[in-house]
Amino acid sequence: MALDPLRIEDEKPPRPAASGKKWVRVTKAVNGIDTEVWEEVADDSGGPQWGARESMRLISREIPRVDGPDKVTGRAVFSHDVRLPGMAYARVLRSRVPAAKVKLDLEPARKIPGVLAVVELGDGEVRWLGRPIAAVAATTPEIAEDGVRAILATYEEQGFAVTAEQAAADNAPKVNSRGNVRALSKNTDTSEIDKALEGSPVRVKGTWKIPVQHHASLESHGVVVDYRGGDEATVYASTQGTFTIPGDAAGRLGLKPNQVTAVVEHMGGGFGSKFGMGIEGEAACLLAKELARPVHLMLDRSSEFHAAGNRSGGEHQIEIGVGRDGKILAFKARVTRHGGVGQGSGHPLPYIYARDNATFVEDRCIHTNMDSSRAMRGPGHPQASFSMEGAMDECAYAVGMDLLEFRRINLPEGKRELYMRQLERCAELIGWKAHPHKQAPDRSDAEVKLGIGFAIARWGGGGNGQCKVEVRIAQDGSVEVLSGTQDLGTGTRTYCASIVAEELGLELAAVRARIGRSTFGNANASGGSTTSPSLAPSVKHASHNARVALFEKVAPLLGAKASELEVRPGEIRVAATPSKRIAWKDACAALGPNGLSAQGEWQAHLAGNDIGGAQAAKVSVDTLTGEVRVLEMVAVQDCGLVLNLLAAKSQLQGGMVQSLSYGLFEERVVDPDLGLFLNANFEDYKIAGAQDIPAMKAVFEDDPRGVIGMSEAAIIPGHSAIANAIHNACGVRLREMPLTADKILMGLAALKKG
Amino acid sequence: MKSFEFIAPRTLDQVVELLPGPRDLKARDRVKLLAGGQDLLGELKEYLVAPEQVLNLKTVPGLSTFAERDSNYEVGALVTLAELEQSATLRRTHAMVAEAAGAVGSVQIRNQGTVGGNLCQRPRCWYYRHEQAVCIKKGGSECFAYGGLNKYNAILGGGPSYIVHPSDLAPALVAAGASATIRSKKGERTVELERFFTLPSEGAVTRENVLAPDEVLVRVDIPAMAGWTSTYMKFRERSSYDFALAAVALALRMEGGRIAEARLVLGGVAPIPWRCEKAEKALVGRKVDAKICALAGKLALEGAEPLAHNAYKLPLAQGLITKALRKLAGT
Questions:
Q1: Mean pLDDT over residues A188-201, rounded?
Q2: What is residue A607's DSSP assignment?
Q3: Could you tell me which chain A residue has the CA closest to the CA of B242?
Q4: Which of A285, A307, A329 corresponds to the end of one domain?
């Protein structure tokens, strides 16, 4: 049974567990969108335990990434950096128009000296702006680009709709056969909710507008396909799913999946946009197959914006009825998702609050002739958070209630304690108590005004049983941990090594983590924050099994039973008689030339699920220029066992930065008449830089649960807290992102007029 | 980018020898001059220009002179923005110029970018910068920003093109009364920098300045401003690096707590650095108070005609004028 992960009330498994089994809620990433399902698994509660946290040497401590020096010195090889003998460089031709029938004459490209192969992509039908329609391989990237530009494309242009307004208009050109405006929910009867709204003494109504955000990964999408004829190939891919590559590539190369090895040593960000090979990966395979030589195809930045996914935008019309006591009595929303030719992730309203009352949510999407949205860090949640937290704030001010008290009243029963604890900690850290104007904006004549705002998040972050991990101990004492998993940027190598080192009593440097290769054990794609809660328990299991196997070998040497042994830094000893000991090297020497290999799989009891998280922002608003400066952000997060406190803090800070950037700057701009994407570059698509980043505090709560992925919770509430802080500062309520100076200045002018 | 011939001339004479004839407008994009390359490389990579030849000015001696004599400055076209930004003398005598140089782009861009390049850079309008939008600036018939998405476009001096001049340095240098020295085969000529920039309605709409196809900007001279104080205030959306949504270069000479002389030039609001002479005159003889700030702001923006999405630039520019006046008056 698939459950909506956001429905807090669905917390019970479908039936009692069978004997020896137990129910766990597991998160499965389907194309990056996490879906939570109840799964009956073996009751593994008696298996390896994480153990007491205070006695940990490496896990949950601040450990610099083992591959950090490689990355900052440029030694780390990303897919983009791969250079192979005889390699050709490829570029893609994108459709210049949003909708057309296209005919291509490839001959002029083929005639250019240095062009090696040209392939057509797609079927001549273009439904979205920038769709790749051909690819050229050449001896240099520059010649490939010349080749792309030499292709003669004849467009039989069709009417297009690149904005939601255009698509929803009468007589709008049809984006697809399903209709431009598509209902995604069935119930349209609002009579009951309207009655409840009418009966509410205080009502807040508004429309929130959410722009399309881009993933803007530093490394663009792409692959290097190493195929030189014959029956095997290696694909170096910038992907968040090592194991999503071989099947895709094999199909295009005419090979079997087990004849293709995917390699993902390092990858430069994905944020949900890099599952599978994409059109660009297919193109590289087609070219490599034709040429029987390696092909390098990485998208340029413009293609990255046009044709590599985005976070769906949307519009939320919300109406809330509130009692004088601050209790929300009725919640009505109409969600419209803008996902291009795609449907967009669900924007789960009402977000967290107001679940015990009359609620009505209509869900629909508007299709446009733009690239499909893809999953993006916390799909749907930051969108829902923006309107919900804004509306919550408006309600609180309208009934004249403290922002936190109003939230307390309207949090669902089972979550109240968690969120209030986190919100109050945020309030303490950001100085809410001493803040002079809590229930109204600063109405003084001050030129620069200060404001504080709050918002919360919810995520699953549970693991699942899709990882197979191997730990090898060699006769010379060296240790390796192997998993096919990819490092999305979260520090996977480091915790793989640290878990093993912790288990075996070794220094971190003594364990080598090898990841990112599909010939290693299976691992899940990194979506839904499922990587560490799936992988870390599997690594723990494998290292536990390795230790037990090693004890079996060593026990006779110490004249004891395996169960009587324990590891201590650099040695194994008999727990009850510490003088009976053997140094690590000597113990491993007993393994013989074959060494030792142990496997591990997911252990449900070593993972957890279901997290909250709260953030607060303090901003200054310059009423003369409309300038917003975020002065401070704080985040308080639960996430079970923290694997690496340093990496976790930077992940939480990264979430704050990305949501700040979403709130203050990011917006795709498309000209509706020309059908052109106007800011498909890093100049006009603005992203926060170092000077825009505030002082940040990232705080983790003590949380006795196992490992939980929290990266997505980190990006959900920040921009909402900032929008609320802007209102608290100067009285301008922005219901449309990005929260830029032009809107604030116009808002201030409107306030002045009254 | 399209392939081109890369030429490294050894003298200025060789440079001007390679330039097209003075009226050879068609050929003007056939040869491009490379200084810091911060603008040209973008134009090449986006296929906005596809020259046959690129002349590297960095190999030409004598263009990097940065000399001061009695607070007069000679600034070669290839002096970097970082040099201006970091000159303690300039910061003392012409603060607005040093501040404007420091407000350009990022550290990397300022280390590469040059004075000449900054003054001659092309517009940043996103229609101009989109290869497929053949706008009036690129020989088309229409300014797409006018009826389109014009948040960053001009509110003053627009028509038939509504670009804003992107240079930070230009308003500050105009306010400083700087002049530009231009070289061609015929020799040198000098124009006041204020006359160097051209409105789309008065010069060629595809250009932003008076340079003819056979000319190259070689030097800027900044006269001394004894007794003046000045500042450059720029508003950008993203603090880390961004072009101005509006900017103010303000210079004041105070006498006994009152303004004796004023120069006020706006950036980011018009196709040229926008000199506000009416406001300058109104400031003379006045003390800086709220009333005069409001008056100067009103006069400076007189005649502004905001487009659909940029009316905010009025209060923004006025806010910056107020801030600049207060800063220089120390109030």
A1: 94
A2: B
A3: A683
A4: A307
Task: Give the pLDDT mean for A449-477.
Answer: 96
Taking contacts as CB-CB distances below 8 angstroms, the residues of chain B near A149 are 47
Contact check, Cβ <8 Å, A688/B319:
no
Residue A167 resides in a domain = no
Same domain? A268 vs A123? yes
Candidates B38, B39, B48, B130, partner chain A, best to mutate (most A CBs within 10 A): B130
Q: For residues B21 and B219, is the Cβ–Cβ distance under 8 A?
A: no
Q: What is the pLDDT of residue A10?
A: 53
C-alpha separations of B287 from A227, A390, A630, B249 in Å: 77, 44, 34, 19
B76, B66 Cβ separation under 8 angstroms: yes
Out of A554, A586, A606, a domain closes at A606
- The full DSSP string for A276-310 is S-HHHHHHHHHHHHHHTS-EEEE--HHHHHHHS--
Q: Which residue type, as a one-letter code, is found at position A526? A: S
Residue A42 falls inside a structural domain: no
Q: Is residue A172 part of a domain?
A: no
ipTM of the complex: 0.97
Q: Are residues A589 and A467 located together in one domain of the fold?
A: yes
Angle, to 10 degrees, between the axis of helix A531-558 and the axis of helix A492-504?
Answer: 30
- Alpha-carbon distance B127 to nearest alpha carbon in chain A (angstroms): 7
Report the C-alpha gap between A461 and A36 in whole angstroms. Answer: 10
Q: What is the C-alpha separation between A568 and A586, in angstroms, rounded?
A: 14
Across the beta sheet with A313-322, the strand order is A181-183, A358-366, A328-338, A313-322, A202-210
What's the Cα-to-Cα distance from A293 to each of A79, A84, B327, rounded to whole Å? Answer: 17, 9, 65
* Same domain, yes or no: A629 and A738: yes
User: Beta strand pairing status for A88-94 and A448-456?
Assistant: unpaired
Q: Closest to A624 (Cβ–Cβ): which among B132, B151, B322?
A: B322
A12 occurs within a structural domain: no
* Statement: residue B321 has pLDDT above 70: yes
User: Tokens for A386?
Assistant: 């923006």
pLDDT digits (tens, 9 = 90+) for A131-172: 999 999 999 999 999 999 999 999 999 999 999 999 999 999
Which position has the token pair 């990011």?
Answer: A666
Sheet of strand A628-637, all strands in order from the earlier edge strand to the far edge: A448-456, A614-622, A628-637, A695-700
CATH of the domain at A72: 3.30.365.10
A507 and A586 belong to one structural domain: yes
Q: What angle do CA A163, A280, A102 make, to 5 degrees?
A: 60
Nearest to A627 among B235, B242, B311 (CB): B235
Q: What is the pLDDT of residues A684-704, one digit of tens each?
A: 999 999 999 999 999 999 999
Nearest to B35 by CA among B62, B50, B57, B59: B57
Q: Is the pLDDT of residue A9 over 60?
A: no
Provide the 8-state DSSP code for A247. H
Same domain assignment for residues A751 and A647: yes
Strand ranges for A163-256 from DSSP E? 181-183, 202-210, 222-227, 233-237
- What range does the domain containing A450 cover? 411-457+609-754
Q: Tell me which of B282 and A8 has the higher pLDDT.
A: B282
What angle, rounded to 10 degrees, do the helices at A381-399 and A403-410 form?
110
CB contact (8 A) between residue A625 and residue B309? no
How many structural domains does chain A have?
4
- Identify whether residues A630 and A729 lie together within a single domain: yes
Alpha-helical runs (H) found in A177-263: 191-198, 245-253
Together in a domain, A339 and A365 = yes
Residue A580 has what DSSP assignment? S
Is residue A604's pLDDT more than 60?
A: yes
Within this chain, do residues A511 and A601 fall inside the same structural domain, yes or no? yes
